[in-house]
Amino acid sequence: MVICLRCKIVINKKIAIPHPHSPDKLFCPHCKRLLFDLGHEEALLSPAEQIERYDLAQHPHNKKDVVNYYEEHDTDVKILGCLDAVQSKADDVEARITLSRLYLIKKQYNLALEEAYTAISYAGETKETVGLLSDIFAASEDYNSASKYCIKILQKNPNDIGSRYNLAIALFYLGNYSSAANQFKKILQIDPTNKDAKNAIKEMKKYLIK
To answer: Looking at the domain assignment, is residue 180 inside a domain?
Structure first.
């Protein structure tokens, strides 16, 4: 994977312009600038870690350009790294789960679901994959599906506060105020100091029929 730091795009090596005397060096077909070569492992490094591997003696790019690119396109760069990983190894479940969560950050819910279901096709319904589906459905406001997967998690781990909280929120938006309040109360039974649950119960009072 090669990046043009001037155009701020990823360039397919097939269309990059090779150096006439050094085939390892490639130039951007748009601006003719020397491209920054980024392997899929390096794509997942932080800007600071990438800079440590960055040799200015061999690459004429400015360090500031590299840092700015990563700060502005951090999620996109990570997505490209994961795509590279799953293209090399289709059953890389960890990469697919990471990719799904990155799509979730960008609110690309259909792509997030596609990767989540692909991960499940290889690994089955694990705590991680079911939790991922729950998060995607909650974020995309599909509360029926979100509650379904929260319940699946809680059947195996009743003390999972995150899933119980998500279930309470889903039930609230489905209009099941009493059931939502009960879930918040169960959270306080597990963690009496949970501020989110305490605040939610206070807010729930105006929705409950006295």
So the answer is: no
Percent above pLDDT 90 for the chain: 49
Classify residue 184: in a domain, yes or no.
no
Mean model confidence pLDDT for the chain: 81
pLDDT in tens, 121-144: 999 999 899 999 999 999 999 999
The per-residue DSSP string of the chain comes to: -EEETTTTEEE-TTTSEEPSS-TT-EE-TTT-PBPEE--TTGGGS-HHHHHHT--TTT----HHHHHHHHHHHHHHHHHHHHHHHHHH-TT-HHHHHHHHHHHHHTT-HHHHHHHHHHHHHHH-S-HHHHHHHHHHHHHTT-HHHHHHHHHHHHHH-TT-HHHHHHHHHHHHHTT-HHHHHHHHHHHHHH-TT-HHHHHHHHHHTTTS--
- Domains identified in the chain, total number: 1
Structural domain containing residue 136: 2-146
pLDDT class for 66, splitting at 50, 70, 90? low
User: Is residue 56 situated within a structural domain?
Assistant: yes
CATH number at residue 41: 1.25.40.10
User: pTM of the predicted model, to two decimals?
Assistant: 0.63
Residue 56 pLDDT more than 50? no
